Every structure is written in structure tokens, then in C-alpha cells.
Amino acid sequence: QVQLVESGGGLVQPGGSLRLSCAASGFALEDYAIGWFRQAPGKEREGISCMNSRTGRTDYADSVKGRFTISRDNAKNTVYLQMSSLKAEDTALYYCAARGITATSFQYWGQGTQVTVSS
Description:
- The chain is an all-beta fold.
- Helix content is 0%, strand content 52%.
């Protein structure tokens, strides 16, 4: 029973910060890679960050590099996305997803959490 549940979204002002959580159940984080994606109305879904939970290696899209940080708490089986210096263009529905370490596609997805950046 693989399940991913995102939380932590909300309304923030430009320049503000927000931390999203992705709680995993039915599998151990160390056996999977976790990715964060976002989609705004009228735009394509964008992969913004991913983590190999076994090695800790991380990758970021150019649009968020230097502002967003992905991390994990293995004891809680939870992955986080710390977002700082938020911009209006960061407004989107954010999803987390999981795949096997050697896989190339994400098979398990959460329901999404809305992030709105506005004055």
C-alpha cells in the first residue's frame, strides 16, 4: 500500500518562505527516489527537484536552484521541500512522487498541495 501525502501549502507574500512535506507510507524512503513537481494553470508540469534517498544526491531545476532545498527525515519517512525567496511565478499545485532508485519514471503520486505567492 504505497501512499504519498503532501501538506504545507498556502498563501505567502513574494520573498517569503514555505516548507512542504511529503509523508510516505507503504515503503521505505531509502529504497526510492522522491521528486517534487508543480503545475500552474495553462502550463506544463515541471519537475523541480528530486532526491536519491539512499545516497542523498539531489537535483534541482534551474528555475528553483539556490532558492529551494529538498531534505528528508528517515525516522518520519518524510521528504521536505524548503522554499525561500518565493516569487509569483512559483504559484502552482505542488506534487511529490516516488520511483525505484533505478527506474526512470515516477509511479506513485500524491494528491498535491497548493502554493500561492501573492501580495
